Amino acid sequence: MSTEQTFEQLYEQLNQVIEMLKGALGTTYLEAVYQTIENMFEGEIKQAEVAPETAKTLLTSYQTIDLADVPAEVVRRAYQLVLLKGLREDKVQTNHQMTPDSIGFIMGYLVDKLTAKTKEVTLFDPAIGTGNLLMTVHNQLKARDAINLVGVEVDDLLVSLAYAGANLQSTPIELMHQDGLGNLLINPVDAVVSDLPIGYYPNDEGAKSFTLREKEGHSFAHLLFVEQAFNYLKADGYAVLLLPSNILAGDVGKRLNAYLQQEGSLEMVLQLPDSLFAQKEAVKSIIVFRKKGSVAKPAHDVLITQLPNLSDAKKMLAIIKKLEAWFENT
Ligand code: SAM
User: Fold this and answer.
1) In angstroms, rounded to a whole number, what is the distance separating the alpha carbons of residues 225 and 136?
2) pLDDT tens, 74-124?
């Protein structure tokens, strides 16, 4: 059976049992997603409202879904289709949308390269959403002794979906349902990777502990999250973040640069093609920061480049060559 067929077949199987449970409970599709996965793992129908006949049919169907030998990446792709259907059907707002694979694969490549020498690596996403990005990155890391994953998410439905997805992929993860800008009970990590929420942070009181807050009015959540990444990185650790391209310009850019001079460095800015975004102001870049280490490092170039259309294999190959050269020189 080809990998392609497997992930599509797996999607069909999952979708069928999710639809059945959704119909029986009258819930949204996404609620039925995590309830289905919970039922599958518990081996029972946990919702008392489901009629015995339906419960029996569901349990029989669960038994036909055999994940034992299916690679985690195939399961992720099937689960991604399930989530895409649910996010569309339940009309989830854009700031909560899953990170697309085209972006996740580049971020995964970067995290793999940047942490290549760390045999036991811990990755942290402070705004993990459905977990799709962190799982995409995880599944791309090569030859490690251990990969520890940590995620924080403020939305209870999304954190449940991240938990369900990790279970489906048999990937251990530490998940916390809380504000990612609060005090977090986590040890310093090797890399932070995140597609950050863009916009204002409503908690002015909470923002007070951040250098990058606004002096008046609401602060920018994405800017505070950059600082939060530094708060939880080990010395010399990297943050690979999806951020508005204009974060490095104007007054915000000046303040961010001043902060970076104290705390670390800007390493890379990969601007995504305009065609991915509806408005020009919404254009984003993958930005890589590094936290200061105990030993000063020789200065090196910041890699700033515009990415081509991500489906243009030839141009992407040229970019990968440029990235490889940068990695070799730094
Ligand atoms: N990478 C995620 C994925 O693949 O599903 C998508 C992340 S989405 C663009 C941004 C996420 O930030 C949303 O899930 C949103 O609920 C979350 N978020 C917003 N404010 C937050 C906060 N203060 N703390 C933690 N998470 C937050």
Assistant:
1) 21
2) 999 999 999 999 999 988 777 778 999 999 999 999 999 999 999 999 999
Amino acid (one-letter) located at 78? A
CA distance 263 to 291: 6
Cα-to-centroid distance, 10 and ligand 1 (Å): 27
Whole-Å CA distances, 231 to 77, 121, 191, 220, 281 = 32, 17, 12, 17, 28
- CA pair distance 148, 164, nearest whole angstrom: 17
Report which protein residue has its CA nearest ligand 1's atom 17. 127
**Residue in 107, 123, 155 to alter for ligand 1 test, most ligand atoms within 8 A of Cβ:** 155
Say if CB 85 and CB 29 are below 8 A apart: yes
- Domains of the chain (ranges; CATH) run 3-89 (1.10.150.470), 94-328 (3.40.50.150)
What's the pLDDT tens digit per position in 41-74?
A: 999 999 999 999 999 999 999 999 989 889 999 9
- Ligand 1 nearest-atom number relative to CA 132: 4
User: Among positive and negative, which fits the CA dihedral 36, 41, 43, 49?
Assistant: negative
User: Which ligand 1 atom sits closest to the C-alpha of 99?
Assistant: 4
- Ligand 1 atom at minimal distance to the Cα of residue 152: 25
Given a contact cutoff of 8 angstroms between Cβ atoms, the answer to whether 96 and 158 are in contact is yes
213, with CB counted inside 10 A (0-12, 13-18, 19+), is: buried
